[in-house]
Amino acid sequence: MQESPSTDELLINVTPMEVRVALVENGVVQEFYLERIARRGLVGNIYQGRVVRVLPGMQAAFLDIGLSRTAFIHASDLLWAGKFHEAESRSHPPVQELLHEGQILTVQVIKDMIGSKGARLSAEVSLAARYLVFMPYATTSGVSQRIEDELERQRLRTLLQTLQDQDATLAGHFIVRTAAEGIADIEELQRDVLFLRKLWEQVSALSQRTSHPACIYEDLPLTSRAVRDMDSDRVARIRVDSRETYAKLQSFMTTFVPSALTKLEHYPGERPIFELYDVEDDLQKALQRKVQLKSGGYLIIDQTEAMTTIDVNTGSYVGHRSLEDTVFKTNLEATHVIARQLRLRNLGGIIIIDFIDMQEDSHRTHVLRTLERMLERDHAKTKITQVSELGLVEMTRKRNRESLEHILCENCPTCEGRGSVKSAETVCNEIFREILREARAYDAAGGFMVIASQRVIDRLLDEESAAVADLESFIGKPIRFQVEAMYAQEQYDLVLV
Fold first, then answer.
1. Could you give the CA distance from residue 46 to residue 104 in angstroms, rounded to a whole number?
2. CATH of 8-39+221-280, one of 3.10.50.40, 3.40.50.12160, 3.90.850.10, 3.30.420.60
């Protein structure tokens, strides 16, 4: 059977303030990455850190790595004798035996600072090239689990073993990345080996010379990482709208990804490249709670600190046969949209999906298998753990950077992230109680002035006018009102006149 032609495109938008990358599959945005020039991500950076606090109860420690917040490392991410032996891989010595305050440690960031949490660290340093990941402290090499074809796994293992036999005196081992599947030959792997060895020598030498918290290796910029990690046979074009970045990528790709050079294009058009592909519209939609399905159904996506919940609803879709058929088709369509939204929004951690209840076991199984299949192309590691007794699909998705919402948004200053504000009626009643308290505590000869938002004042003068009159009579003082346009609905002040 003839393979379908490559249709995916990698779009790179560069401005003086930020770099944005979008992966477009079959004309639809699937993944989005953002790097602000003034605040680059930390994942992949290597630091010389100083232990500032050891936490035996948590089997962890905090390290100063020269950033605004201390970073966190768990004992399971430290190095110790025998760690990589299978018999000991699931246990570790107490953290107080491995670390002490003031100790200097070479560590790598594996999770960015998210919210109030500091960066997550690991002492198991790794360096990535196009086809290989170098792990200087590992004792075995391997092939990515995402490469499932056993013949291809064996081919890559043989190539890697050949290269390591040629230089068996050097420490460290390699993992073959998914990008090597069906492509990499021994010359390309050897190029990666030489590059990674040289890079590690530089990092190791700098580590030995540095005795204070500092960054000793900074990962590649987003543009280079995107080309290195996201290019595949499915990607037909890599389009960049900056001539300077285009030239830099040409140089980078000539050395590390020469096979993809023919895909690289400079986009000189006057119309912004993201608008050309409707990326901007998709990003705006990805910030909304409600996601519309083509059938008329919809999803409600709620992101919280602990987990993300996704609720599937039939909406206006009524189908043409039976209720079970309508529910099944809605759930089936939802699996495609959910897989895309997880990637586009970069939702991580625990994810709970509430599909519409299905009566037939075959339908439930089909929906679950479809979801698993749709998640196969996700660059982040995902795992569907089980279907709960309540019919909820529980899954996890590896999170190593902030979600789209956390990158682009901040908590609403009015509701402070609650997602709702007190009603005008509730605020009016609070004002009445405050007036009663103040009238008992102070002798306001001239009465009171209420300063509040337009909507609250309107309600006080209309629906609550009778209550205001009764209150004035009760306290024996006049009450006046003043609108403050800058006040949020919950804000008000009570002034003694």
1. 13
2. 3.30.420.60
